[in-house]
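User: Structure tokens for this complex, please. No commentary.
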Amino acid sequence: MNRRHPHVLIGPGDDCALVTCSGETILTVDQVIEGRHVVAALGPSLIARKALARSLSDIAAMAGTPRWALVTGALPADLASRAGFGAADLCDALHHWAEHFSVPVVGGDLAGTSGPLVLTVTVGGAPHVARGPVRRSGAAPGDGLYVTGALGGSLESGRHATFAPRLSEAQALADLLGPRLTSMIDISDGLGRDAAHLARASGVGIEIDAERLPVHGDVHSPAPGSAWRCAAEDGEDYELCFTARGDVPALICGTPVTRVGAVVRGEGCRIRTPDGALYDAAKSGWDHPLGE
Amino acid sequence: MNRRHPHVLIGPGDDCALVTCSGETILTVDQVIEGRHVVAALGPSLIARKALARSLSDIAAMAGTPRWALVTGALPADLASRAGFGAADLCDALHHWAEHFSVPVVGGDLAGTSGPLVLTVTVGGAPHVARGPVRRSGAAPGDGLYVTGALGGSLESGRHATFAPRLSEAQALADLLGPRLTSMIDISDGLGRDAAHLARASGVGIEIDAERLPVHGDVHSPAPGSAWRCAAEDGEDYELCFTARGDVPALICGTPVTRVGAVVRGEGCRIRTPDGALYDAAKSGWDHPLGE
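Assistant:
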């Protein structure tokens, strides 16, 4: 038994792990692939951190609490010679960040590959005890559209590898708003495209007001007055995008919350630009093309 | 909700899946890497089958029942041109075999890679309702050592890609033997090395009698009288190796069960050869070097 995590009855080393669970479990898996989501020059610590944080961000998007993680690594034979780190460094880093994020790694598998490094992280968790799992499909006309934090420039700034999954913020929003928190997603493909996912899953339309977008302070927009475009289109922000009815606090767990649009009847997600034009947000966004 | 699998409350398409659970969950993850565990020439159906079956074999090794699976694929851009199949073929095959093995795929992730195909399959399940999870660590001196089926030649024969995980056999053994089923593992590294895992986890010694080994009928041994060596050393059999006290049936769910050795005081796993020599089984076995 794991003293720090008493729900872990069997950890790594047997054919399976064994964890206690009660009622319902939320489940997600994600991968980071060298050349696509990370480059080896990030080093083992940030690569391990990002692999865990991407899956934890999915748990946050449901307002859940992570309870365990399983990790696989497909490890290039030449990793040590070309990148200066190896399997042991990655394992140490995974355990370090797993402790940091309070999620025990209960098992996994490492094997050699002739290709790039691939890490996968599966996370199981508990849905919010009162609100239940916050799905993409609950948005209704009249709800506001909100985001946490600031958007844009994640890749250029390196934040794509250092972000903190918004677990506490999501849980606090579910505590506070309960059923008024109607839908939620984490922003990985870019606000426009992820808000379009909410619209499609909920069978509604969403309008985003470009002038309200909280653009990150270090965004260098390609043209004057177009910084909002980075906030709407850049990927890998890993902030929360949610819809809610009624009052929503401007700050949650110390993180700003900004109303950036509204849910309307209809379908699709449109962005109203500062000059009043509307364009289809589903066609904007980001396809994780790091290093390609 | 999934009508065929009512414990799946949210399936693919949201940030997380949601499943019901009760009490305890067993968890495992494994991967198949092109060039190491599979070659593209196997085709999408057998690759998908093996990816699922390897993880299900870990569930069998604990005498559990699989309840859900999560799948990731790192997909080479040139897969279609060089192997003649693509992401859609793999997805179809994964869903086909998941239905075949009665385990719903509740989520996953696909992304491009510049390297070989990598599939990972995470499976969660329920431990045996009466016996509980069968660990590697329960073997005691005086127990017999048993294997299901026949051993050896898995790679040459192609059985490494077509085996059926011994889920029913494991559950029936746990039903029948209860606490007399003292430890269990699935044979992936070769009987000698996997029995050595049982010995180490249990703090006991194991002696295997080479003359008792059920050698598969199509094993072509390199030298006369050495077929037992293929049975002891070849990997990827995915049969069950278990220890039990008292009577054990010779057939379970139609699959032969053979007593191949005994648990003794001490440590390590030794194989007694037909000429009476003893050698260290932990140094035998297989490291999945397919195609390398």
